[in-house]
Structure formats: C-alpha cells, structure tokens
Amino acid sequence: MLEFLTFAVSLVALYSGARAITDSAVHFAKVLGISEFVIGATVVAFGTALPEFSTSIVAMVADGGTPEIAAGNVLGSILANTGLALGAAAALYGIYIDRKILETDLSFLLASMLAIYVVFLDYRITWIEGVVLIAVYFAFIHHEISEHRKGEAKGSEKLDPRRLGIFFGGVLILSVGANYMIEAIQSISSTLGISEGVVAVILLAIGTSLPEISTAIVAAKNGRGDIAMGDIMGANAFNALIILGASSLVGDVAAGEAFVSVTLPVVVLISLLLGFMILGNRITRFEGSLLVAIYLLEVIAILTIL
Q1: Is the C or the N end of the chain the one with fewer CB within 10 Å?
Q2: Domain total for the chain?
Q3: Where are the alpha helices (DSSP H) in 39-126?
Q4: Residue 253 — φ and ψ, nearest 5°?
C-alpha cells in the first residue's frame, strides 16, 4: 500500500509545483506586457502539461531509462482527455461549439495524432523525429499568435520578487514529485505484476489528466463548450508533439508492439471521431457516452493484452 500512498502524494506534489510555476510565469508575462492570448497559448498550455512533461522526462533519465512510462503517459493522457474529460462532460451536459473557431486547431490536432502514429511505426521515436515534432508545434503556435494578435497587453503589473521564490520552489517540488512518481510506478508495476507502461497509460494518465477532466465538465455545465474543446485539443497536441519530442532528445522513446497495434490506432480513431462530431457544432450526450465507452474498452484491452 505504501507505493499507492507515494503515488498519491507525488501527484499532489506535481500539481502543486505546476500551479506555482504557471501562476508565476503568467505574472512574469504580464510584467513584460505579453498579451493574454500569447500567455494562454504558451505559458498556461505548458503549465497544465507540466505533470506529464516532468514525469516523462524523469522516466527517460531514470537509472536504465523507462521509455515505456513516457510513451504510456502521453498516449494515456490523450485518451483520458478525449474519452474521459470530453466524453464525460458531453455525456452529462452536451457540448455546444462553434466549429469555425476550432477548425484550425482541429486540423492541427488530427495532423499531430497521425504524425505520432507514423513516427511510432518502427516502435520508437528518435531524436531527429523529436526535433521535427517540436518544430511543428512551435510553427503552429507562431501561426496562431499571428492570427489572433490584436495588440499586446500593457505591462501594468510590477514585478513581485516573491514570485521568483515561488517559481523556483515550484520547480523543486515538481522535480521531487516526478522522481517519486516514477519510483511509485515501478513499485506498483512490480506489486501488481503488470508492465510499467500499463500503469502509466491508465493510472498515471488519469491522475495527470484530472485538471482537464474537471475543467471540461465545469465548462460544459456553464455552456462554455469552446473552452472545453480548446483546452483538450491544445493539451493533446502539446502531449503528442512537445512531450514526446522532448523525451526523445534524452533517448529514443520506445513503444512495444502491443502499444503500436492497440493503443495508437485507438488514439487516432478517437481523434478522428471527435473531428466528425465537431462538424455538427455539438457533441451530444449520446456521442459523449460513446467516447467514454471507447475509453473504457481501450482500458480493458490494455489490461488484457499488454
């Protein structure tokens, strides 16, 4: 039971560290006069993905390296974001969206999912492929910033020196939490007799996706479907391109045959299905339930096959 307690405490540390870093970074951006859109597209997007980012990087640099955790964490988070977060939100309240606003983001998301499917066909992502993934992401962000720029925000806030301490404290907490998280996953894997990749793709992915799940449900309840969709699509693209790309710079991100033949196709399928749903300007309760069902079936398949 100690390993599960360590997992829970590490998860809290990851969230606390990520929140401290994100809040401080937003403050620094406002001091520098950076627009809210740029902050949202870069600083906040990175902040919400810090738990996945930190655990994936630590998994790659840990003794012996555990690339299965990095791959499982990313793929599992994408599935949890789409199947659980959006699925549950739509199943409970239905999600109404303006597809014109999301068309570019949707196209980019689908391209991102297809990209990771292609690079994983040889069961690994090399550093060269990782550099390409990262470059594609920043090219998209540059395009989005150029399209949405409506004048930069004034640097009305003054620098609060305490934010520097909070920022570096957050970095420390995040690093420690990520290290203990990897140790907990390895212990849970040994205790349950299942692979580290399975623990990452299910347990860790759900844990690190909790902010997206709660945000999507609240946004759908308040009739802010565009926010829910934007957050999920942004998080999925960041996971696929930046986290996998950065992890590959540390070492090849390897995935077993079962991951490539089972999990990756479902990631692409559920993303394509989401695209078709968006064409109708809404995700109905039935469609939301379908997304949840696909996720649950995927979990069963993972536990059975992997």
Answers
A1: N
A2: 1
A3: 45-48, 50-61, 67-79, 87-93, 99-119
A4: -90, 105
In DSSP notation, 190-237 reads: HHHT--HHHHIIIIIHHHHTHHHHHHHHHHHHTT-HHHHHHHHHHHHH
φ and ψ of 49, to 5 deg:
-100, 0
**Look-up of token digits 């060269």:** 128
For residue 71, give the nearest of 27, 139, 130 by alpha carbon.
130
For residue 39, pLDDT beyond 60: yes
Please state which of the ranges 144-148, 234-238, 274-278, 282-286 shows the lowest mean pLDDT: 144-148
Nearest partner of 57 among 152, 179, 146, judged by Cα:
179
pTM of the prediction?
0.81
Tell me the residue range of the domain where 128 lies: 2-305
Residues forming beta bridges with residue 283, ordered by sequence position: 95
**Bridge partners of 125?**
253
CA distances (Å), origin 105, targets 12, 157, 283, 305:
30, 31, 17, 33
Tell the residue number behind the tokens 């995700």, with chain if given.
283
Indicate the Cα dihedral angle 61, 62, 63, 66, nearest 10°. Answer: -90
Least confident of 5-19, 57-71, 250-264: 57-71
Take residue 80 and report the two structure tokens written for it: 């949890």
Say what the pLDDT of residue 92 is: 93
Tell me if 62 sits within 8 A of 187, measured CB to CB: no
Please report the pLDDT score of residue 287 as a whole number.
95
Q: For the domain that residue 208 is a member of, what is the CATH number?
A: 1.20.1420.30
**Pick from 252, 211, 250: nearest CA to 232:** 211
Coil, strand, or helix at residue 280? coil
Sorting pLDDT into bands at 50, 70 and 90, what band is 266? very high
